[in-house]
Amino acid sequence: VSDSNPDGGEFFAQFLDDYFAECDEHLTLVRRHLLALEEQAGRSGVDQPLLDELFRSFHTLKGISGMVGLTGAEQLAHHMESYLRALRQGEARLGGEGVEALMTGVLTLEQVIAARRKEEAAPAIDATVARLEAAISESASESARPAPAGAADSGVPPEKARTWRFEFVPTPALSERGVNVNSVRTRLQEVGEILQATPHVGGTGGIVFEFVVTSDADESVFEEWREDNLTYAPVEESTQDETRRPPQPDSIPDREEVGARAPFSASSAGAMLAPSNVVRVDLARLDDLMRLVGELVTSRARMEDGLRQLRQTVPPAEWRALQETNMAMARQLRDLREGVMRVRMVQVGEIFERMKFVVRDLTRESGKEIKLELQGQETEIDKFLVERMMDPLLHLVRNAVSHGLETVAERVAAGKSPEGRLTLRAATAGDNVLIEIADDGRGVDAERVLARARSRGLVAGDVRLDDELLLQLICTPGFSTRDEADRASGRGVGMDVVGGAVAELGGTLTLSTEKGRGTRFTVELPLTLAVADALIASVGGQRFAFPQSAVREIIEVDPSAVRVLENNEIVSYRGGVLPLVRLARLFDLGEQPEKPFHVFVIGSGAHALGLAVERVIGQREIVVRGLNDPLVKVAGVAGATDLGDGRVVLILDVAALKHSASGGRQPARNVRARTPVEQL
Amino acid sequence: MVTASLRGLPDASFGEAGSGLEAIERVALAPVDLIILDLNMPDMHGLEVLDFLRRHQAYREIPVIVLTTRGDDASRTDALAAGASLYLTKPFAPQTLAAQARALLHSHREGS
Questions:
Q1: Could you tell me which residues come within 8 angstroms of residue A282 by beta carbon, excluding any fewer than 6 positions away?
Q2: What is the DSSP string of A122-140?
Q3: Inter-chain touch B21–A252, beta carbons under 8 Å
Q4: How many angstroms separate the CA of residue B35 from the nearest CA in chain A?
């Protein structure tokens, strides 16, 4: 493809995007299948559908990599395909070494594709290819048969097994002859493997049984069966995914008893989830859609203001009609917004699948025994967030494996079960998504962190260490209690990057750790970024927007109820005390007049904080626009929005405010939040 | 066992199917007045069979008694939602099954 032709270049870029997306899909499947395959290594009968799925994925990867001219990926996929072909045809026996070669192959393949994506130099593949070749020849000699000649260099290999669709129409006459659905099923099982068996009602109202079968038998065998009302047709390669779906997905809620469903083997169940009625959409198009929704929200707000002004001049009946339309539009707009949001959602399970692979790798390297538990994979999260959170979450998982969990010997010595437990949990909480990474390991060594923090002058000598401060310290750039970052935790991102990424996405990171018992990191992220519900309040004549998801409660406080304790203002709140931050003072907008004011309560328990404002104006749907210019980017301000009257309102970054407020008590202070905002 | 407990029914003949597909084939080949369906079958889930029957005009009206070894409410709700006429949990008294079957047959014949 020549880049001199602008249309061609653009076309190719788009084509490449499709390529990467398709690679991602196949690599996800491959990773899942390889893990399943690993459990079967060494056994004589390896699950055939699993091999078929893997073979197909590698075959596709090879084909599409060739199309975009990524020869490294093409070669890798080709070698893995060859190995699987040998396995499928029973010419090779799968051993641990073989699985290992495949795993390495997939990792290298990922790296080659990732390098192309980032337009970097591709990593060397020679070692991996050699390893795969060794696996092929070794297993071939083991079974005393030569590797399939010629197959290795032909572009498209001859595929022996094909997929067929059989239809059987039972009749009383056939039944008398002993030809019934059971005998047909047995017959088909003898020539191949039944992937799927479903009953249908045919055109004339009679029953038709449909079987999807992979078989390497000759077509002539099937031809004779026509007289038994058993007809056949080949299934095209492109429709195979669809035929692998289980019949009527989701229609039967109670499936746990189905362990013994003969045609479907348990390990290939994941493959059958392959979606067929799914449209792949470029994220940029959804961004555009979301932007348009955002503009609609702003326009409607403008219209509402206009309506309010008309109220005096328009007859009440007509005004009410207009207002009703306006309210209906507000509702519809909200539905539209939620609809677009839902389109952007993907299941967290996608990230968790990746983690499984990583944990498996780390487990082998570290020699630790780890049981990975996943919960809430079906929780949905914005695709954008998934992309951004992948590396930070990987880091947390690596940390848990390499620092958190102990070796078997250490665990036994501590009286724990030899197998460490790592739990990944996702859940929805209001407008937020929670992702937890928890281990039952040794916990963060607070003394060591503290000692290091002291030696670097980060904390005063007498500071009391709690989880929040601990988190703050380990998230300090360049702070690591390991003198030499090991391979597992030192891949590019450190805890400071994790903290930064979460904060950038408007989320919060919390840590809870107990010595000897374990560590839990909780990432709380907003469901979506572009449009949010906000509470609008005024401070010193300025209006500010508070993300509603962060506000627990609004209380009214009389100035006489405020007490001063060690330079901090507090009020009593729900049987405890609530430290106050006066935004007017924080943002240098003049002192608040001495009259009752409102307080937004954010956080909960010991971390609750009250943000004092003068007046609450109301609740609005706002379009969040980031402040990207470093000159106006201020900690404590998450972005800006336009309420429809043309005036810019700043959106407060509640998490950062909380951070800086607690920083007032502690040395890792974030002074930037004190920058006067009216300079904007 | 199930057939034995139904012997008392007058003028009844019985057929057995060992799998979900076989059951559907039987229903298709000869008229059936009552189906007693076990949820545990080697090829299909009992509820899949039931769902199939209920989705097709010709078999929609056949009474179906669902048998299961488990007695949890979710399963009962699912079975009834899928169109089961009755839900029985093993172990059950043979008389109960016979009586229920008789009642269902009676009302079905009257209805049609």
A1: A17
A2: PPP-HHHHHHHHHHHHHHH
A3: no
A4: 17
Cross-strand bridge partners of residue A207: A201
Tokens of B5: 């407990």
Longest dimension (CA), chain A: 98
Count of A-B CB contacts under 8 Å? 71
Return the structure tokens found at A615. Answer: 């007046």
- 41-70 of B, contacting A, C-beta below 8 A: 42-45, 47-48, 51-52, 56-58, 70
Q: What are phi and psi of B70, to 5 degrees?
A: -100, 150
Q: Which residues of A touch B76 (CB under 8 A)?
A: none
Query: What tokens were used for A171?
Result: 């009749």
* pLDDT for A275: 43
* Interchain contact A414–B (C-beta under 8 A): no
Query: Where are the alpha helices (H) located in chain B, listed in sequence order?
Result: 2-5, 20-29, 46-54, 73-81, 94-111
A260 touches chain B (CB under 8 A): yes
Question: Reduced to 3 states, what is the DSSP secondary structure of residue A344?
Answer: coil
Mutation target for A interface from B16, B22, B41, B48: give the one with most A CBs within 10 A: B48
pTM beyond 0.90: the answer is no
Nearest CB among A197, A207, A255 relative to B43 is that of: A197
Q: Find chain B residues with C-beta within 8 A of A199's C-beta.
A: 21, 24, 52
Helix (H, G, I), strand (E, B) or coil at A638: strand
Q: Are A568 and A633 in contact (CB under 8 A)?
A: no
| Rounded CA separation B37/B15 (Å) | 12
CB A185 within 8 A of CB A228: no
In the predicted model, what is the mean pLDDT of residues A64-84? Answer: 83
Q: Mean pLDDT over all residues of chain A?
A: 76
Give the chain B residue nearest A195 (alpha carbons).
B43
Interval A400-452: pLDDT, tens: 888 888 888 888 888 888 889 999 999 887 777 899 999 998 888 888 888 88
Contact yes or no for A147/A86 (Cβ under 8 A)? yes
For A361, residues 6+ apart whose C-beta sits below 8 A from its C-beta are A103, A107
Q: How many angstroms separate the Cα of B31 from the Cα of each of A205, A219, A232, B46, B53?
A: 14, 36, 28, 20, 13
How far apart CA A591 and CA B31 sit, in angstroms, is 88
Q: Which helix (H) or strand (E) holds A330?
A: helix A316-343
Distinct helix (H) and strand (E) counts, chain A: 19, 22
Would you place residue A599 in the very low, low, confident or very high pLDDT band (cuts 50, 70, 90)?
very high
What span, in angstroms and rounded, lies between the C-alpha atoms of A356 and A367? 16
Whether B1 and chain A come into contact, CB under 8 Å, resolves to: no
Q: How far apart are CA B23 and CA B50, in angstroms?
A: 10
The answer to whether B9 touches B101, Cβ cutoff 8 Å, is yes
Token representation of residue B19: 């799998």
pLDDT reported for residue A136: 76
* C-alpha–C-alpha distance, residues A472 and A562, integer Å: 29
